[in-house]
Structure to design on (276 residues):
């Protein structure tokens, strides 16, 4: 099974990554295909595309959309998206994320963990705000040792500073991605224990599943690959790179070339010029 240097899941400073889009592309040197999939924004895609094209890397504009399906949080990747006109959708996601970010800051206040507002504003300037920004502020203020502790004690779902954000249903987001001419893929399903709902989402028009993810074990990957084949879905793969500290560089993973070819064929069948 030939593995390409094809990475369809990465983050930049335009959401909760620590490298700028151009720095991300530099870190992915040698990749064949790279997608930028920041949380709920495509703001970094133009700069990443310019840097990737200069470096001879095929670039895909993407986005990782936070969605809800019943009791499940589902991260939905939209790949091969037209950029940058996401209209109302992006504006609504940005508003929901800012609202929830500052609501969580107030929860931290109530816990006696008061964070400096100017510092926080700087941390999220130009970015789609997320919990990692809060985790890093908590570390800088000396309240926790690392992001793992920040999520475990305060920021994770069910922890005292957690607040939900308004978000679209997974099915609505799948349909939205299709209207944008993109391919939808459920991100890191094994980490979120989403195996049981993949069938329902396939029935609702889901295109693909992120079978290959740096956080999936070999057993999880094999089980997902079998499930995806049975459901007639495509496979995607990526590093989910957020920064060098993760120890998984971008642009070096993971997707079998046959799966990449199947994705490319799906787009050709739709006659999508922009995907070429
Ligand atoms: P948000 O988009 O604000 O809901 O935050 C989700 C992001 O937080 C994920 O994309 C990860 O980057 C990060 N994250 C989630 N859970 C953890 C965890 N337990 N430890 C460290 N980072 C996490
Ligand atoms: Zn993230
Ligand atoms: Fe995710
Ligand atoms: Fe991600």
């Amino acid at each position: 099974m030939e593995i390409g240097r094809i990475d369809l899941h990465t983050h930049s400073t335009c959401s909760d990554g620590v490298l700028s889009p151009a720095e991300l592309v530099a870190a992915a040197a040698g990749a064949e295909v790279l997608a930028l999939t920041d949380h709920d924004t495509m703001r970094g895609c133009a700069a990443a595309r310019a840097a990737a094209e200069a470096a001879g890397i095929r670039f895909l504009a993407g986005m990782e959309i936070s969605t809800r399906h019943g009791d499940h949080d589902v991260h939905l990747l939209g790949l091969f998206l037209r950029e940058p006109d996401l209209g109302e959708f992006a504006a609504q996601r940005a508003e929901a994320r800012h609202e929830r970010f500052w609501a969580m800051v107030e929860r931290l206040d109530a816990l006696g963990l008061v964070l400096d507002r100017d510092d926080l504003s700087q941390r999220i300037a130009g970015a789609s705000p997320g919990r990692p920004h809060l985790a890093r502020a908590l570390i800088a203020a000396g309240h926790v040792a690392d992001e793992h502790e920040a999520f475990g004690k305060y920021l994770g779902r069910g922890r005292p500073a957690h607040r939900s954000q308004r978000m679209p249903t997974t099915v609505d987001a799948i349909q939205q991605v299709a209207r944008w001419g993109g391919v939808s893929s459920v991100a890191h399903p094994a980490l979120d224990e989403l195996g049981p709902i993949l069938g329902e989402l396939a029935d609702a028009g889901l295109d693909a599943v992120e079978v290959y993810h740096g956080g999936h074990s070999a057993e999880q990957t094999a089980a997902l690959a079998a499930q995806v084949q049975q459901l007639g879905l495509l496979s995607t793969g990526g590093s989910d790179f957020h920064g060098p500290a993760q120890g998984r560089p971008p642009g070096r993973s993971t997707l079998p070339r046959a799966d990449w070819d199947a994705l490319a064929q799906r787009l050709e069948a739709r006659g999508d010029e922009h995907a070429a």
The pocket of fe (iii) ion (ligand 3) is lined by residues 64, 75, 187-188 (CB under 6 Å). The chain has a mean pLDDT of 94. The chain has ten helices and eight strands.
